[in-house]
Amino acid sequence: MIGNSNHLISEKSPYLLQHARNPVNWYPWGAEAFKKAELEDKPVFLSIGYSTCHWCHVMEKESFEDIEVASLLNDTFVSIKVDREERPDIDKIYMDFCQMLTGSGGWPLTIIMTPDKKPFFAATYIPKDNKYGRTGMLELIPQVKQLWLNKRNELLQSSENISRLFLKKNISIAGKDLDKAILDLTFEHLSRLYDAVNGGFGLSPKFPTMHHIYFLLRYWKRTKNEYALKMAEKTLNAMRSGGIWDHAGFGFHRYSTDKKWIVPHFEKMLYDQALASMGYIEAYQATQNEEYRRIAEEIFTYVLRDMTSGPGGFYSAEDADSEGVEGKFYTWTEDEIGKIFSGKESKDSEMLIDIFNIGASSLESGSILYVNKQLKDIAVKYNIHLKDLNEFMQDAIKKMFYERKKRIHPFKDDKILTDWNALMISAFAMGARVFENSTYEKAAVNAADFIINNLISKEGVLLHRYRDGQSAIPANLDDYAFFIMGLVELYQTTFDMKYLKTASALNKYLIENFWDNENGGFFFTGVNNEISRFRKKDVYDGAIPSGNSVALLNLIKLSRITADTGLEDKVLKIIKAFSETIEKNPEAYTQFISSFDFLTGPSFEIVIVADNNSAETKKVLKAANSAFVPNKVVILKTTGSPENEMAETPGFIKDLKTINNKPTIYVCSNYSCKTPTNDINEMLKLIN
């Protein structure tokens, strides 16, 4: 220990700093901690969590702040704290071990292992004393100490067996190609999981798994199956009406603990805002329903207002807890509504209490806001015009938001992560071009430039985390794949070649350092990772899509934009690498299958050649961006550009020219181009 602090005191992670004054002698992950364990002949107690994790806070308060537990930990182990958001490489490996040993996982993640990083015990939350059918820390730690001292060989053998099983489980052998039938099979599986009453998939908890929505919209586009669109829309509408949506301040909470989307786990994650906004943008494109546009714009309002740093990067998360109570910041009582709206007996208060079901679903701190009635029925009930009711609602939400600002705000995790920022860049870039909004374009540009300037080394190597002036931690597959995707999206919004060049350079580095030369696909970590013996490939599309699923889409798009046919070879190999896994449970890989949908076609390269970025050119771009044609790339060649910019233009479009001195559209598909046209309607006909 260092004074009243431990070895976490110099870290940048907000999660590690939360534990820096625990009486537990925590170390950050690194050589020093493992050397100490080896020299003192102690096992390692590894605890993994994140700053906005409710049960991580509970375990800290119960055990890690407790002198008795801390004394036992310090005597028995070398204790290491890891922020899973800073070190997803470590978290993925040891979470796999936990799921393999216990059949489940979650955070806080607790691993006990040898000094050479081989685990022999795994659990999630552990109480201080025995309860919930769980052995408590006060009993567990002495048991482990006795086993380490008296039955060491058995523990070591167990750790060897577990590690061997882990390695065997993570061997992947290339399979066969996928065919179009996987699209129908995925839809069938999702249909079985679909909750036709409440929207969403499965029972509870319910997550906003947006790659299911992306797939359903593509499947509807491909097959004209109206039920696919209905599944997507009902889910999107149910999420927006439920308590998982922050009705007063906008943005989505982490997930719903019940099947009706009412009671959320209240933390807010940047990646959920990014993935959800892209889902609502695509739903707007597909249906032209203005409500979906409004929801996407409200998510952007929240991110720009509460989650954007001065230099342009986006913060990671907001906690579920405030004042030690989960959800206290977000819940309301009838008395609180009455104070804002002239007493709780007033018509305004009565309508709001009715609309938001205040009193119907209450926690200790108050009621969760959710809407399960049609506003037109509310208008009839209170004898008010629907237009006036909508205006009243907008005004009421603003008043509630400003009143809520007076409360103690949940903790904000202000670290800037490359992968999560990249998802938000994609979302803002999409929003900018679909909604013709320069503010969104500026947000995407600022964030992308922030990463380029702060999180790419002089050698062109990407880093994972920025906080408090420090960039650190080698980037993982998700960082590379998501940022490449964001740059490709941003290129198609700004047509600035800088972003396309950066995407291509990072993609080249990714292939050189992460590619599995033997069986295809990308490893999560690069060749020089410190725990490379447990290096693994992942394709599961969980809370966020997998790096391999997004990398597949990047390879396809970059090959189409740059005419680099060598990338197509990697496309086929990445599909073969995971085909057998995906065919067993395709509903678990919907982002991968959406990427495969692009490959299956029809897909389009739309090249617009124009003398300048004129009003006519903007009309062409607006038409191309408004239509729901997800399997396309758009390239703008501005004739008369400076020589150095023209030299960077993808080779296959260099000789394309305008016709009739007007913006000219070249639509290419299936390795051939149609007759060029000046007619926007002709373009839309070709791509639809």
Brief synopsis:
With 688 residues, this protein is an alpha+beta fold. A 5-stranded mixed sheet has the order 1-3-2-4-5, with helices on both faces. Strands 19-18-20-21 form a 4-stranded mixed sheet, sandwiched between helices.
Brief descriptors of the model:
11% strand; Glutaredoxin; 21 strands; 688 residues; alpha+beta; 5-stranded mixed β-sheet
Structure description:
The protein is of the alpha+beta class and 688 residues long. Among the domains are: 14-169, Glutaredoxin (3-Layer(aba) Sandwich), CATH 3.40.30.10; 601-688, 3-Layer(aba) Sandwich (Glutaredoxin), CATH 3.40.30. The strands form seven sheets. A five-stranded mixed β-sheet has the order 1-3-2-4-5, sandwiched between helices. A four-stranded mixed β-sheet has the order 19-18-20-21, sandwiched between helices. Strand 4 (109-113) and strand 5 form a beta hairpin. Helix 9 (210-223) packs antiparallel against helix 10. The protein is globular. It starts with 13 loop residues before the first helix and ends with a helix. The model has no long low-confidence stretch (mean pLDDT 93).
